[in-house]
Design goal:
mainly alpha; elongated; DUF4355 domain-containing protein; Gp46; coiled coil
Length: about 200
């Protein structure tokens, strides 16, 4: 039986129940059928959600590519109404250069602070807390910490020699976190139990 004969047979017998059921299997899904299928089938629903996410992400990327730079340019223009595009670009270059210079200065200050801290036996893991706006402020912070630490050590030694020393917390020292340590002043850090400070720095 060729294709034409099959078509003729189905057309002539489409009223029969068996033929109708067979033809129903070839019916194209409409919107209602697809919606019902997605609602009732978990795998189909997951697939649809995945496709929606893909299309959304792709659409967002396309929007960014086509519009974001324009929006930024318009906003810059609003803030600088009297500046030409060349002047705006020059300002951007200056800002980038200033950022690079600040990063270079901070790196230089950190290297200087590391050297001084090594000479003064100050834990290098604390260096970032002491870096100031310039070398003078950075060295002052280190000096202040050194003085406070020396005073603390001296007081501890004197207490022990007098026999009045009591272990912090009665043998059960308090616990502090690195975040808490970062928020402390150099004076507060200097007053901490050295063992507790060492435990925090070792993480």
């Amino acid at each position: 039986m060729n294709l034409e004969e099959i078509k003729k047979f189905l057309d002539e017998n489409k009223g029969q129940e068996e033929v109708s059921a067979y033809l129903q299997g070839f019916k194209q899904f409409g919107v209602d059928e697809v919606q019902k299928f997605v609602i009732e089938n978990d795998d189909a629903r997951k697939w649809i959600d995945s496709e929606k996410d893909k299309h959304f992400s792709k659409g967002l990327d396309t929007w960014k590519t086509n519009n974001l730079e324009k929006i930024i340019s318009v906003e810059i223009k609003k803030r600088n109404p009297d500046k030409t595009p060349e002047q705006i670009e020059l300002d951007k270059l200056r800002a980038d250069l200033e950022k690079m210079q600040n990063e270079k200065v901070r790196e230089s200050l950190k290297n200087k602070a590391l050297t001084v801290a090594g000479d003064k036996k100050i834990p290098t893991s604390l260096i970032d807390f002491f870096i100031g706006q310039d070398e003078e402020r950075t060295l002052a912070n280190l000096g202040q910490f050194e003085t406070a630490m020396n005073d603390y050590v001296k007081a501890q030694v004197e207490d022990r020699l007098k026999g009045s020393y009591t272990p912090p917390g009665g043998g059960n020292p308090s616990v502090i976190t690195m975040d808490q340590l970062k928020n402390m002043s150099t004076e507060e850090i200097a007053k901490l139990d050295p063992k507790l400070l060492d435990d925090v720095l070792k993480g």
